[in-house]
Design a protein that fits this description.
- This protein is α/β, with parallel strands linked by helices and 503 residues long.
- It has two domains: 122 residues, Sandwich (Immunoglobulin-like), CATH 2.60.40; 367 residues, TIM Barrel.
- Helices cover 26% and strands 24% of the residues.
- The strands form six sheets. An eight-stranded parallel beta barrel has the order 3-4-7-8-9-10-11-12, surrounded by five helices.
- It binds alpha-L-arabinofuranose (AHR).
């Protein structure tokens, strides 16, 4: 059995873990909002039409800030359509997803839902087909207490207090040719800078995210960040990263190493941002908002699901409803490890998305809601990763991948909360056929024991939770963990994700 060694020492911290690292994303897309979180005819729906079984699962998932309302959707969105009396709201064509948007859930209803799930709102403005003025209008409507036409309109629409939205995205994926209003880095950098300056004039307390690349594999990657940040460096706080991974052509080995790609993506964006910092002579540091990340079988959407036809604009069609396997959950857990390991610079992240659409939570209209395999690494990591992320010393065997060359068989991150004394370790074994024995030097943590252990692994790495079998996959204890003489030993089964809480 291959073996690996790890040393954990709370003296070597990478950075504080922001709760925003465990953010989510709700887009008006497919059955996410309609027939997802909102289904007035469902037996669990409240007076506003929100399914309470879904609310309970979102709470259990432990998501902090939630990005809204898109995504590609936002680049064709007129926010004014989504406020005011519901029976007067327009029905619009959503060009991004070839659907009809009824606007029956808008800003007010969504904020009401966020109050139920206990999450904060992060709003994206449309810089695709709209501009600075519309962004200012939305900010005034949302954040000004009263005394102006737009703030009074919010009050008249039933919300006396300002929404007080702190975090704002300056458009979405403006580097992508699929994006309505896609621009060059030069053009986007200019409009983003102008809009950011104007928004800050209105409300200096907001935090702004400028669009980075839609993937580290875009032809403009790197140069896009350099040019956009050169225009916006002093105007924004974060640059975004988006990344989705899928198993392609049966290459599970590369897929299991997806976090290697995410690590490289983050480190390249950090280097580029710091390069621009030096060139513009700034004293401030730009952080990353990794505001879309997940496993997504994008090729299935491109080849099978795409809706077409000039007279075919369905409401809430089934789109992007990926059903996740154990292997997907292991990769997903590893992506969280990558985000945590970069906690010094990734200070916000949004799992894309939450319900039905590439989501940890699935629902059936008139039927149950259930947890996908990816639900578990998110909920467990969000709950256990507290305090600071730690720098680790990891010695592990390696294996060869087609996409990323030689990569470690094991990946890990640890966290430590100095206030409570609690620590947590998150581990992945990427081997497809061998268990790994891991020895962790925990002497620096003092006299600790294993408080919790959670393992995701299965003889069938493609096992899934489905409507017919909603609890086929669930975490179980990894009871191989044993502590003696300042060392913890544990066996990591093939294709597995493990979380340990120590205290
Ligand atoms: O999350 C699905 C889509 O992925 C988003 O709308 C878009 O921003 C990205 O391409």
């Amino acid at each position: 059995m291959p073996s690996a060694r790890l040393t954990i020492d709370p003296h070597f911290a990478v950075g504080r873990i922001e709760r925003r690292l465990f953010g989510g994303f709700v887009e008006h897309l497919g059955r996410h909002v309609y027939d997802g979180i909102h289904e007035p005819a469902h037996e669990s729906a409240d007076a506003d039409g929100f399914r309470q079984d879904v609310v309970e699962l979102v709470k259990e998932l432990g998501v902090s800030t939630i990005r809204y309302p898109g995504g590609n959707f936002v680049s064709g969105f007129r926010w004014e359509d989504s406020v005011g009396p519901r029976d007067q709201r327009p029905r619009r064509l959503d060009l991004a997803w070839h659907s009809t948007e009824t606007n029956q859930v808008g800003l007010h209803e969504f904020q009401g839902w966020l109050d139920q799930v206990g999450s904060d709102l992060m709003l994206a403005v449309n810089l695709g087909t709209r501009g600075t003025l519309e962004a200012l209008d939305l900010l005034e409507y949302s954040n000004i207490a009263g005394g102006t036409t737009l703030s009074q309109r919010r009050i008249d629409n039933g919300r006396t207090d300002a929404f007080g939205v702190k975090m704002w995205c300056l458009g979405n994926e403006m580097d992508g040719p699929w994006q309505l209003g896609h621009r060059s880095a030069e053009d986007y950098g200019k409009i983003a800078s102008q809009t950011a300056k104007a928004m800050r004039q209105l409300d200096p307390s907001i935090e702004l995210v400028v669009c980075g690349s839609s993937s580290a594999h875009m032809p403009t990657f790197g140069e896009w960040e350099r040019v956009v940040l050169t225009h916006t460096y002093e105007d924004v706080d974060y640059i975004s990263c988006h990344a989705y991974y899928e198993e392609k052509d049966g290459d599970l080995g590369s897929f299991l190493a997806s976090a290697v790609d995410m690590d490289g993506f983050i480190e390249t964006v950090v280097a580029t941002a710091d390069h621009v910092k030096a060139v513009v002579g700034s004293s401030k540091t730009i952080d990353i908002s990794f505001d879309e990340w997940n496993v997504w079988y994008l090729s299935r959407f491109q080849n099978v699901e795409k809706i077409e036809g000039v007279d075919n604009w369905p409401i809430a069609p089934r789109l992007l409803e990926d059903v996740y396997s154990v292997a997907d959950a292991v990769v997903f857990g590893n992506l969280l490890i990558s985000l945590l390991r970069h906690a010094d610079r990734v200070r916000s992240a949004s799992l894309a998305q939450l319900v039905n659409v590439i989501a940890p939570i699935m629902t059936e209209p008139g039927g149950p809601a259930w947890r996908q395999t990816t639900f578990f690494p998110f909920s467990i990591t969000s709950r256990l990763a507290q305090g600071e992320a730690l720098q680790l010393k990891l010695d592990a065997p390696t294996y060869e991948t087609k996409d990323y060359g030689t990569v470690p068989l094991v990946d890990a991150v640890a966290t430590h909360d100095a206030e409570t004394g609690a620590s947590a370790v998150f581990l992945v074994n990427r081997s497809q056929d061998e268990a790994v024995t891991l020895t962790i030097d925990i002497a620096a943590l003092g006299d600790v024991s294993v408080l919790e252990s959670h393992l995701i692994a299965d003889e069938d790495v493609y096992a899934k939770n489905t409507l017919a079998d909603r609890e086929r996959v669930a975490p179980r204890a990894n009871d191989t963990a044993a502590i003696a003489g300042g060392e913890l030993t544990i066996t990591l089964p093939p294709v597995s994700w493990t979380a340990l809480s120590l205290g």
